[in-house]
Every structure is written in structure tokens, then in C-alpha cells.
Amino acid sequence: MRTWICPGSFDPVTSGHLDIIKRAAGMCDKLIVAVGVNYKKKPFFSAEERKSMLEKATEDISNLEIVIFSGLLIDYAREKHAVAIVKGLRAVSDFEYELQMALLNKRLDESIETIFLMTNINYSFLSSRAVRELAANSGSIEGLVPDEVLEDIKRKFGKGGK
Amino acid sequence: MRTWICPGSFDPVTSGHLDIIKRAAGMCDKLIVAVGVNYKKKPFFSAEERKSMLEKATEDISNLEIVIFSGLLIDYAREKHAVAIVKGLRAVSDFEYELQMALLNKRLDESIETIFLMTNINYSFLSSRAVRELAANSGSIEGLVPDEVLEDIKRKFGKGGK
Amino acid sequence: MRTWICPGSFDPVTSGHLDIIKRAAGMCDKLIVAVGVNYKKKPFFSAEERKSMLEKATEDISNLEIVIFSGLLIDYAREKHAVAIVKGLRAVSDFEYELQMALLNKRLDESIETIFLMTNINYSFLSSRAVRELAANSGSIEGLVPDEVLEDIKRKFGKGGK
Amino acid sequence: MRTWICPGSFDPVTSGHLDIIKRAAGMCDKLIVAVGVNYKKKPFFSAEERKSMLEKATEDISNLEIVIFSGLLIDYAREKHAVAIVKGLRAVSDFEYELQMALLNKRLDESIETIFLMTNINYSFLSSRAVRELAANSGSIEGLVPDEVLEDIKRKFGKGGK
Amino acid sequence: MRTWICPGSFDPVTSGHLDIIKRAAGMCDKLIVAVGVNYKKKPFFSAEERKSMLEKATEDISNLEIVIFSGLLIDYAREKHAVAIVKGLRAVSDFEYELQMALLNKRLDESIETIFLMTNINYSFLSSRAVRELAANSGSIEGLVPDEVLEDIKRKFGKGGK
Amino acid sequence: MRTWICPGSFDPVTSGHLDIIKRAAGMCDKLIVAVGVNYKKKPFFSAEERKSMLEKATEDISNLEIVIFSGLLIDYAREKHAVAIVKGLRAVSDFEYELQMALLNKRLDESIETIFLMTNINYSFLSSRAVRELAANSGSIEGLVPDEVLEDIKRKFGKGGK
């Protein structure tokens, strides 16, 4: 069984993330979407909220497991018997950083591959940060995030979410 | 009337900013220089200080309005009937980021254009951050900022501005 | 009167070119679209064919002049009293090259500005070369070039255009 | 069955190509290595020579088919029922170009994915062109190309291959 | 006497740093390795710890002086009669930033050169930050840092170093 | 004795080249400027013309040798006992290509270093190709090439040099 793992902070999940997740899920037997907990960066949404939004947005994808993880991605990937890490690429800055991570991970475990998919052109400008900025300033985020989580995000920002 | 808007944090205004402002003002009927207030980033100079320095540096440009704004740039641009956002470009990292912002703003309001001007070659290495670093370490900033604001900046750093 | 000049080889004009031309024309009083003749690069379409296709594609834009030019762009811009050169930007490689040209042109004539517009996201992958490749291999170019020139391009390639 | 296709000119196959081919073959059910024939670029090795060298270098990989193709890659991929195009990425220039191709191919057939793998760090500087330059100037290419084709390449250049 | 200066935060020194230091030391008469103290960034290791680790790792290089400095690098370089600043380059992001710094320093003192060396290919993915991440998560850092400082780093992280 | 080698096609030498040569000569004991002869690219000026122009432009630099070379640079560098190859860097595209060459050369001979200097900001847009374009179109090249070779270049283009 080919298991791939798709890590991220998903703070919150965007339409761009969802597009990558769908396409990746279609190319492997099982896709693990791994919500990263980083002791150094404080996320806007809690790990549980981020996991819950991912679950709502991906209900119709069957070969998916959504998990929360901390520590080194490569250790977690090995533990889950994943053969590949899958990432979406948008622009050059992404590329540089992701190249470094891929090479580092290759050194830590040569048997685990890193696979890159191009972000859908319609979401090439999209990031979780942009979504948070818009939501915090009452800008419209419709279409930029999965419909299923639109209300969750608005509610959070409505509650003095800034 | 063609109104353009030139947003930035101008913390503080540099000779590079001034060059872009002058050139942009020469290409439209009215240029709004918009000093951004971002609730998440604490600037070194207050919004009022930044606006005041811009005013001193641009006294001889007639078709200019200098304002302080918060919230989404695209909303503010629409409110001011600006037809274009104008930005200076220096290097690739600028370009990547500005490309994302331009595409996002285009999605938020298709009628407002983003225009890029190349930073003057003599200021291609210059940033507000570099000015602050130099001033904080008693380095010379002459020529790197408009003459009119040189003393203001030195005074701020002299007062334990670090 | 603010005259801008939009140079290119337009070999052939694409939907991306047309988008930039329309947006640029909306921002100045007169836009000159200048089809470059370069003694060193042999184009696929003749200068006259390229000009004719541009004319068909831009019939509904009133403040437009389409011309053929050779020699230095900056000389031609000066001769036509253009205050700015306008270019579309797609990706980093574009940016690097265009930055060099803009700086060179600035040195040759400081009074003429170079203005960059971001290519529409839907055409960010599009180039005249890609269109020629597709057409030469019987791929569909519908939507990638203005409808008005679709037949012209197909006919050229049909006639053993390779 | 998941069929992937790995296109290239392989003029000649390098150790970097071979590394990508091995890793890609390990991630799908069948990998088609497609040697491109481009009517516009004259290769140094003939399509048959390039295919033959690939065959020698990949004898121990079982789920591989090596083919020669011309025309549009996306048409060929569809014909072979490939679900993905797989490419190696080295540097930013690669990335820019490959991004454009991936987006163009996505538009031509949305059902076919483009997958990127990072080139092995030890071959990040390696290209077919570099191999040809070295071989043409009697430089050592050992380790830069698969051992199985070393003699073929030397022989070609020895015969006044320049 | 040709004195070069190699600045950095070395938080902690990596195998990539050591490689650049060795190569730079071999190309000048005296190399000053300057551990920067930046009042704005809190390092993980103290300046003294960073200096001490550099000393252990470079014991066999004779023409080396390791110092702690604060303030402007260019002022310090001048004070030490250095004729050049030497830096390792890894990727494009490095390059952009380093280009800006080099141009700024050139403007501050035209007589002091900036020299760039390419990072060894085996360390092209390596950074102090990556080392800290690995160590904080009990990942192996062997080979990524000089053997002489391996225990120092592990001990620091063992002591609740996070 | 520290010998450095500065390779290029110098077709023709520009003010940017001269700036790099002067600065490099000041940092080593002997600088070899090596005019490359490439059997695959036809230069505009002959190797002898290019060497002769370099000689005129560098008459006041004493520790310089100007040579014509063909074949592999690394072989030639070794033959001349050079310890380093020195190159000027302008922009990202330069950087990518030069990085590949540096890594390839490092693999061919680990004992020879590649050193990069930043191109003077005033020449950051300058290339031999730009000079040829300007001269071919009767544009002014004053200041873009060393004064000593201005007439040589004009004469060549005047003689139907296109």
C-alpha cells in the first residue's frame, strides 16, 4: 500500500490546500494529512480546530486520515509507513524553502521521497496568512476557503479573533 | 481624474521611496501616499511621525495627498476612487511577494490595477530596515533618506531609540 | 497627453498580450503597440502579419496605434513622445530580464519610465512560443489567442507552417 | 494501474536522470521514459542512440518502458493512459520553466497531473549539456553518466563527435 | 597582509560554516571569524558559547582569529583592517539578501570588498536553524555539525534547551 | 603566489568587466584574464580583437596577464597554477548558472575555488550583448565600455559590423 503524507499548518485550510489534498489522494492508496504543532509558532486556530476544519472539508474523500503531529516530520512519516511526503508549490520562495527541507529530509531518511505538485493556478496567490488578513479586516474569503469551513472562520474572527 | 495610490509602511521614508513617489506623481493626476497601520507589526516610528516625515520630504510635489490607513488596502483604494496601486520593485523577493499581493488584490477588485516601477539603481540595496540598522549603530544615513528628515531620524535614535 | 508604448514581438499576439494591452490602454491617453523587427531573430509571422493580427484583435480599443519599429526602443519611444514603456510580467525570469532592460533604458533616457503590469493569472503560463508549439502539433489554441486571429494562425500552420 | 511518464531529451542520459527514473519507477506501477524528438532542436545523439543508452542503463528496472515520441507530450501521455508526468527539478530556472509547462499541460488536460521530484544533491549541477562539454574537451565524465553508457559516449566524441 | 573577515551568528556553527571557514582561511593571510551580537535577535546559544564552539571546531587552522562583535560589520571590518568580507552562498534567497548587504556595505566603505564562496554541495540544505530543530526533536545532527561540538549542542538541548 | 583566473568571452569588454578585473587584481598576487574560445558560439569580435581591447583597457594594472584559451576552464586553471576562478555576479539568472558551473568545477578539481564578486551597482544592467545591441543601432555606449576601446567598437560596427 502506497501511503503518502501531506504536512502543513493549515491555519486555516484554504481552497489551495484542498485542491492539493484531493489531487494527492487520487494518486496514492492512502493520504495522511498531518497538522503540524510547532512549539515555537503560535497558530491562530488550535490544532483541534484546524483538524476539525480539514475533516469537514474532506468528508467526501475516502482514503484520507487527518492527524495532529509534533516533532520531526520524517520520524512521523516513518512511523506511519509513508513512502512519500507531498507538498504543493506556488512560487520561487516556496521552492527554495521546500528544496532545503526535501534535501534535509532525504538525508535523514533516504527511503522517503518528497513529491511536489503545482498549486492550481487559481490559488497561486493564496495562503493561510492572506485568508487571516482578509477575515480580520472583514474582507470576503468566499471561494478562498472550502465552503464547509467558511462559517467557522468567520465566527472565530467575529469573536474578537484578531 | 486618474488617482493612483502608493501604500507602504515608510518606517522611515527612504530616498528610494521618495524616488518612486516623485516618478509616480508625474504619471498620474493625483497620488495618494498611504501610510499603513498594521495591528500586528509594531513600527519604529508612529504613524503620525511617518506621515509627518513624508510631508516634509514631498513639500514640492503638488498633486500629492498623504494619509494614514488601516484595514484592507483594496477597500481603502476603492473608497478613494484610486484606479491603480503603485509599488516600487527592487529584487526577486520583492517581486514574489508583490506578485501575490497584486493577484490577491485583483481578485478582490478587478477594476483596480497594480502598477510596478523599478527602484532607482542607486537605491536598489536600500530599505527602511537598513536605515534603522545604520541609525541605531551610529552609521551614516546621509543620502539614504531625504535631507528633510535626516535630523528627525537621528533625534529619534539619539533618544535611546533602539 | 500621456502616451505609453507597449513593445513586443507578438509572434503571434496571445490572449495574455491582449489583456495587458487593454489594461494599459485604459490607464493612459494613447497606447502605441510597437511590433519589433529584430534583424537577428527570424520571426515565424512577418511583421506585417503580426501587425495585422494585432489590429484585428484590438478593433474595439480606440486610443491605440499599432506600429512596426526597428532599432532601439528608447529612440523610437522618444520620437513618438511616449512618457512610459509598459510591459507585462509573468515570472521571475521575465522579471530579471525586464529589470535589466528597464535599467538600461533609464540610463539611455532618464525621462522615460518603464511600467510593469502583472500578467492575468489565467495567462501566466502563456507565451507566443507555447502557442506556436501547440499550433505546430495540432494542439488546441482556442482561448489562448484572441478569437479574431484564431483562423489566421491555424491557416499559417496548416500551410506547412512549421 | 498507475502509469507515470517521464519525458526528456536525454542527450545523453546522465546519472541525475537515472536517479530520477529509479525513484519514479519505485512510486508507480509502470514508468514510461519518453525520449522526445523535437523537429526544431538538433540533438547530439540520435533518438535511437538515446533510447538505446537508456535501455542499457535501466536494465535492472522491471516496470519500465522506454519509447521515442514526437508531438505534444500531453497527447502522448493521454494515449498511453498515463495519470502523471514526472520531472526532476534542479534549480530556480528549471522551476520557472517547468511551472509554465505544468500549467499549460494542466490546461490542455486537467486529468493528467505533473509531479516533481528533487534532483539528488550530488547531481544538482549536472546536465546533458555539461556532459557533452566535458566529453568534447576530453574531461572525465565518470560518475556523471551511468557506467553502462560511458563507452558509448566516449566513442561518439572520439569519432570527431564535436 | 590580506585580512578577510567572515561574519555570522553561528548559532551554532555547522559543518557548512566550517567548510567555508577552512576554504576562506586558505585564500587569505588572516581570517577573522566574527560572531555577531544583535540586540534584536535573541540567539539560542550565548555569544561566548558560540565563540567557544567555533574555537573547538577550528583548532587546526592557524591563521584564524575568532571574535565577538556588535554594531555595524563594516565599522568592525575597518577597525580590524580587513580588506574583504567573505560569505558562503547557498540558494537564491541567500543571494538576494547578501546582494543587498554587499551593495550597502560597498556604499558605506568602497575600499572593503565582499567575496562569496559557494557552499559545499553536501551542506547546501544545512542551516543553524535546521540543526536546532533537529536537536530539539532528538533528531540526529551527526555530520551536520563539527564533531568537536556535537556533545556541547546535545547537552544544551538535553537541559530543557527548547 | 596566489594566482586567480577571471574567465569570460569579453565580446567586447564592458565597464562592468573592467571593474571586476580591477577589484580582483587588487585581491590576489596575479590575475589571469582568460578570453574563452568556444567552438560552438561565434563571437562578434575575434579572440585577438577581444584580447587586444582588454590589453588597452587594463594597461595600468601591473599584476595582470591576458590570455586566449579553449577547452575546459578547469584544465587551463590547473595548468596556470591558479588557486581560484573569479567571476562577477549580477542577477539571479547569473547566479543560477554560475552556481552550476562552480559546483561542476569543484567536482572536477576540488583544490580550485570559485570566488564571486558583486558587480558594481552602476553596471548591474550591463552586458556585452547590450553593448553590441546599442552599437549596432547607433546608440551611445560611452561610459558602458572602457574609454580606451570606445573607438575600436564603433569602428567595427561602422564597417557594416552588424
Structure description:
Six copies of one chain form a homohexamer. Chain A has helices at 15-25, 47-57, 73-79, 92-108, 128-136, 150-158, and strands at 3-8, 30-37, 64-70, 84-89, 113-118. Chain A has 162 residues and is of the alpha/beta class. Chains in contact: A-B, A-C, A-D, A-E, B-C, B-E, B-F, C-D, C-F, D-E, D-F, E-F. Chain E binds chain F through residues 2, 23, 26-27, 83-84, 89, 92, 95-96, 99, 102-103, 106, 113-118, 120-121, and chain F through 2, 23, 26-27, 83-84, 89, 92, 95-96, 99, 102-103, 106, 113-118, 120-121. β5 of chain E pairs antiparallel with β5 of chain F.
Produce the secondary structure layout.
Six copies of one chain form a homohexamer.
Chain A (H helix, E strand, L loop, with lengths): L2 E6 L6 H11 L4 E8 L9 H11 L6 E7 L2 H7 L4 E6 L2 H17 L4 E6 L9 H9 L13 H9 L4
Parallel strand pairs in A: 1-2, 1-4, 2-3, 4-5
Features:
homohexamer, 162 residues, alpha/beta, Rossmann fold, 5-stranded parallel sheet, globular
Strand order of the largest sheet of chain A: 3-2-1-4-5
CATH class group of chain A? Alpha Beta
Q: pLDDT below 50 for ≥5 consecutive residues: which ranges of chain A?
A: none
**Computed CA radius of gyration of chain A, to the nearest angstrom:** 15 Å
Count of individual beta strands of chain A: 5
Please provide the ordered H/E string of secondary-structure elements of chain A.
EHEHEHEHEHH
CATH topology of chain A: Rossmann fold
Largest interface: E-F, 22 and 22 residues
- How many discrete domains of chain A? 1
- Given the C-alpha coordinates, what overall shape of chain A results? globular
> What kind of oligomer do you see?
homohexamer
